[in-house]
TrEMBL record:
Name listed for the protein in its UniProt record: PucR family transcriptional regulator
Natural source organism: Kribbella antibiotica
Highest taxon of the lineage: Bacteria
InterPro entries referenced in this protein's UniProt entry, alphabetically: CdaR-like_regulators, PucR_C-HTH_dom, PucR_C-HTH_sf
Signal peptide coordinates: none
Domain PucR C-terminal helix-turn-helix residues, every copy: 63-116
Length: 139
């Protein structure tokens, strides 16, 4: 009998905002988002630190870019979901590129941006103020 690790599936689902019955195999690359702390720290410092500068607009740029990626880079769908104009989505995605240096039209940058944005979503509370406590330290 093969046992599938439940903890990675639960942590990934929780960090991704998923609920209900979730199988690890259904999560695709999402479990990778919570792994590789050393690589994440370096990439985050290089690309995401500019988004941490104070300001609501930077949080909006980050959220818009993440939703844009989730909407398969469809401007109109993203704009409708965020209740903003199409040009607002284009502007924010361009600002994301300017601030982070990640050009999501390039596959490597797209993967890096997706990974870092999802990692931040999974490890930072909605307020964006501080990381969630380390779950391993609760035991």
């Amino acid at each position: 009998m093969r046992v599938v690790p439940a903890v990675p599936a639960l942590e990934t689902a929780d960090g991704s905002g998923l609920s209900g019955v979730v199988r690890l195999s259904d999560l695709g690359p999402r479990p990778l988002v919570l792994s590789a702390d050393c690589a994440a720290a370096g990439l985050s410092a290089r690309h995401m630190d500019p988004l941490d500068d104070a300001g609501r607009s930077n949080r909006e740029i980050e959220e818009t870019t993440l939703v844009y990626l989730e909407c398969n880079q469809q401007v109109h769908v993203t704009a409708r979901q965020l209740a903003v104009h199409d040009n607002t989505v284009r502007y924010r995605v361009n600002r994301f590129h300017e601030l982070t240096g990640l050009d999501i039209r390039k596959p490597e940058d797209l993967i890096t941006a997706w990974w870092l944005l999802n990692r931040r979503r999974a490890t930072v509370p909605a307020s964006g103020s501080a990381p969630l406590p380390d779950k391993a330290s609760d035991h």
